[in-house]
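INFO batch 0412 | record 1 of 1 | parsing
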Amino acid sequence: MIICSCQRISDHDIHAAIDWMRASDAATIITPGKIYHALGKAPECGGCMKLFVATMRKSDKLEVPAMLRNMRADKATKGTRHEGRQESHRISQ
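INFO prediction complete | emitting tokens
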């Protein structure tokens, strides 16, 4: 099925690019831009992006690498002050 008619990219092309990227570097984060680059193309109008991303998500190899999972900030640190910055937007007098 054609996903991007501007660049003639099919769902098979997207899955093949994901497979190739995952085989060459297991720790890479796969993005639509990297897929376009791997295919030697560039997005033109962006009208296909929702379908493009939906097609990417159907791939079994799209998962986030294990060493990059759970890297978000701990929920316990939310709301705390960092680096001595003020919490408000007002300038101190």
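INFO post-check: The mean pLDDT is 82.
INFO record closed
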